[in-house]
Amino acid sequence: MKVIKGPQVFPRSEYMRRLSAVKAKMVEGDILAVVITDNAHITYLTGSVAHSYDTRGVVVLASRDEPIFILRWMDVAAAVQETFLERDSIIGYSEELMGDADRNGYDAVIDVLLDHGLGQGGIGFEFCNLAVDSAEKFKRRLPQARIIDFSNEVTRIRTRKSDLEIAVLREAAAISDAGVLRAAEVMRPGMREADAIAEIVGALARGANGKPGTWIATPFFCATSRIGNPHTTWSEDSLRKGSQVNLEIAGVRHDYHVPICRTFVLGKPSDRLQRIHEAQLAGLEAGLNAIYAGAVSGEVAKVIHSTTEKHGFKKRSRAGYSIGINWMEKTTSLKLGDKTVLEPNMTFHLHLGSWVEEDFGYVLSESIRVTESGVEVLTKAPRQLFMLS
Fold first, then answer.
1. Cα–Cα dist 117/145, whole Å
2. Rounded Cα–Cα distance for residues 317 and 315 (Å)
């Protein structure tokens, strides 16, 4: 049966723009082909959002308009439905490559390179995403090729978003807000943590403004005994009067993630919790006032850190990181010493979370877009310490 192509998130012209940027980098390095293996980059260049955990790769050829997507045969239908690619640009490899200690899907990728006469010349690879044995496989089977590390090039390209991407990020931000507001509605003493997170995740799936969530990113639900660490989920316990919950979630649209953090307390907050909220709120607002196109990321971080310290709390972690497809982009951070110059349509999770001791921490964050003159705050949930009865 013929697989029917579904509606694309973005028009073909958007993907061709992205590919043109990649090919410009290829020209600079005299590269004939690039092998893309990072899942976020595959999404960025093709539109594929299926979460397959089998080996797959996209080959961008200097001589060909469309890239070639190589993946397991059973995932071809999803690639046809989701991506802008024509059917002859999608190749499914045999089940014989599954569960084999010596061969895998990257052998099929190499076969494509060889079929296109690319046994020699410059070929770029995302080595930071490859296991050692996979990297060695490419070198062993392509002994005449000039191997070039292309690890961070696509990440750098996608750091500055198009207006179309910003529109999707706004949709995801509204979903993040809905998750926060649902948490405030339902969390009460006696409620199981599992039931609370079920309500929050339900809101993230239902979405906002008629736009459903299209994926559930791992929600971090750090309740009273776990508020000193940022990356744990719910437990088998129930919430109690006086419980604190540090919540970090992300609304997701077509793999574009928009994170948000808020802190909740079931009852009256301690003096310490109230003070750290005021300190981190001041730091967040100072950071927002320091962000604009042309600002340096490290200088923004310095403003945030100095503000929180003036209020009596030293923030040890960085102040934020670039966001987009997947929760975090890897090249740009709002951290002390970072020299990145901010550009319009860069997007960040401005994170004022602070873990002061092993048994005490607090979270507050916004996802933002850099503009020519300042900043657009994408997330809109009340910027408060939520006190629930």
1. 11
2. 6
List, in order of start, the domains of the chain with CATH numbers.
Answer: 12-158 (3.40.350.10), 163-388 (3.90.230.10)
Say how far apart CA 361 and CA 250 lie, in whole Å: 20
Residue 157: the pLDDT is 96
pLDDT, tens digit (0-9, with 9 covering 90-100), for 206-216: 999 999 999 99
pLDDT tens for each residue of 60-88 = 999 999 999 999 999 999 999 999 999 99
CA pair distance 323, 284, nearest whole angstrom: 17
Stated pTM of the model? 0.96
Length of the chain counted residue by residue: 389
Q: Is the pLDDT of residue 1 over 70?
A: no
What's the mean per-residue pLDDT of the chain? 95
Q: Is the pLDDT of residue 222 over 80?
A: yes
pLDDT for 309 equals 96
